[in-house]
Specification:
Among the domains are: 120 residues, no CATH class; 39 residues, no CATH class. Helix content is 40%, strand content 8%. The protein contains seven helices and five strands, in the order ααααββαβαββα. The protein has a three-stranded antiparallel β-sheet with strand order 1-2-3, with helices on both faces. A two-stranded antiparallel sheet has the order 4-5. The N and C termini lie far apart (81 Å). It holds the Pfam family N_methyl. This is Type II secretion system protein GspG C-terminal domain-containing protein.
Length: 240
């Protein structure tokens, strides 16, 4: 009768998989953890990481919104000083000269949007009575948007802006109606978007957008590779 071969404990250990997840699972099993408990723990950690990332993105957006509001406050002072000297508000062309000294001595440099680096939308009535500055805030829950009547937008057809500043000469709604009824007052033509789902986000990364115009995208692309190549140019970035 043949004797059964016994396998030493040393040789048995060699049969255990060397995959790190398997080794981790075996270690946790030895300490009383089941696979279900391990998966639950990993899921909780993943959710916490996701929430942290979303929170950081929201705080970053709010910081950029604060910069936009600060720019508008500085422009308001500069515009009134300009009006006192010239009895009229600056012509729209001045604000198109983004990041220049075109408004000196009333303002050191003409501010640009902190994300897109493009000029702010600026409209005047041509009779020196009122002006309107427009931008889009990233934080759509900002209470100022609702207060201004700009939720989801300020109401100007084909312009996605949700924040407006005026000189207060007329109610915001009346100014919006005047702009909407006169295409000659529009700051720029409505954004043109070629067909596609991919667009460059404000960080210069290619992402999928279901409403590119609403996010201020200058262009969209039919494939991710072309999109990512185009994202090297900040002029292609969406505003939000």
């Amino acid at each position: 009768m043949k004797k059964r071969k016994t396998v030493s404990a040393h040789k048995q250990k060699k049969t255990v998989s060397k995959h790190p997840l398997t080794r981790l699972y075996c270690l946790l099993c030895d300490r009383g953890f089941t696979m279900i408990e391990l998966l639950v723990a990993l899921s909780i950690v993943a959710i916490m990481i996701l929430l942290l990332a979303l929170g950081q993105g929201l705080q970053l957006g709010r910081g950029e919104d604060a910069q936009r509001k600060s720019d508008f406050a500085k422009l308001k002072i500069a515009f009134e000083d300009y009006y006192n000297d010239h009895k009229c508000y600056p012509p729209p062309q001045i604000l198109q000269q983004c990041n220049t000294t075109a408004l000196a001595p009333y303002l050191g440099r003409v501010p640009c949007d902190p994300v897109s680096k493009q000029p702010y939308a600026y409209i005047t009535d041509g009779s020196c009575r009122w002006y309107a500055l427009f931008t889009t805030l990233d934080d759509t829950s900002d209470p100022d948007i609702t207060t201004l009547g700009c939720k989801p937008t300020c109401g100007v057809t084909n312009l996605p802006y949700n924040y407006i500043q005026t000189n207060g000469a007329m109610p915001v709604g009346d100014i919006v109606n005047l702009i909407d009824g006169n295409t000659n007052l529009l700051p720029t033509p409505p954004p043109t978007v070629i067909p596609g789902d991919y667009a460059c986000d404000p960080r210069g990364q290619c992402n999928v957008y279901d409403d590119p115009i609403g996010h201020g995208c200058k262009a969209t692309f039919v494939d991710a590779q072309t999109c990512q190549s185009a994202c090297a140019n900040p002029a292609n970035w969406c505003t939000r």
